[in-house]
User: Fold this.
Amino acid sequence: MEIKMTLLPEDQRNAASIKNADSLYFGKLRSDHMFIMNYENGVWKDARIVPYGPIEVMPGAVALHYGQSIFEGAKAFLHEDGEMYAFRFEENAKRLNHSASSLCMPEVPVDIQMEAVMKLLDVERDWCPSQPESSLYIRPFMFGTEDALGMEPSASYVYCIMLSPSGPYYAGGFKNTVRLLITERYHRAVEGGTGSAKCCGNYGQAFRAAKFAKTFDAKQVLYLDASNTYIEEVGAMNHFHILKDGTVVIPEFTDSILKSITSISVMELLPTLGYKVRQERVKIEDFIAMVKSGEIIEAGGFGTAAVITPVSEYIFENGDVITVGNGEIGENTRKIYDAYTAIQKGATEDKLKWLEQVPRLS
Assistant:
């Protein structure tokens, strides 16, 4: 696909602004350019890289009224060789198409997504940060643009990729643990819905639950299924726990749980580290009992933004708290995190072939 380039002059680019920063907030900064293309009459067209800026949409756009909007999250990393490497973006491209199918949107061919992100990353390679626990966060998204108020899918769409040089998702990064709220009050998704899609509505409705969790000094809610029987996921990450025998347990993927690429990657990595891993439906009452008994010694979350986040304790609405292990980052979680991020950062050999070097095209 031909991608037209309209780039800012070098003296108007702002990548130097991140070089001397001690740390970066997650998702606050933007690089100079974005990739964008349009879908009309059944065809993706007008692919271009242009300066980052507003996207014009009509007030009646389907996405604004009926939420026909999806997104992805991926990362690229700067290695010591001075080159930039994208982490498993092809998997994100495939998952975006799963989300598109769930919302009756057109797929974006994976090869087009790959070409687009590689060319944009090449243009913006000076924006890839080198601070600890940092990355160039990649945010592809698509939304319906047709100016129509009828209750039906849009006939036109915009697909866009923007970049954000970012630090860790949770303040302080891996050295800090988080608390989660266990409640039956809120649910992220239900069977037969869009829980396995990365659609915007799943996240907008979660703001209320996250706001409620903060009143308990918790970062997020540990969502249960609609029957309040099984653990599903946390708003920004899949959940996991580690048993006393070292087995890592991740809730089984269902149509109400997002299939985390981090979870999939960790499941591939764990056997190389000597760990057993399994997926199963986890009853919340069993989970609580095993934390209390000490059978569960560590817990946390897997996600692109959150990476591997250790959970130290869970709080209930009545104020009761259960602590996982000794309440600190466990040695197994630390070992998994170190091995995973070492591959991302190029500190160890990428035997699993997760990384793709960004070619120097410009």
About this structure: The domain at 4-167 is CATH 3.30.470.10 (D-amino Acid Aminotransferase; Chain A, domain 1).
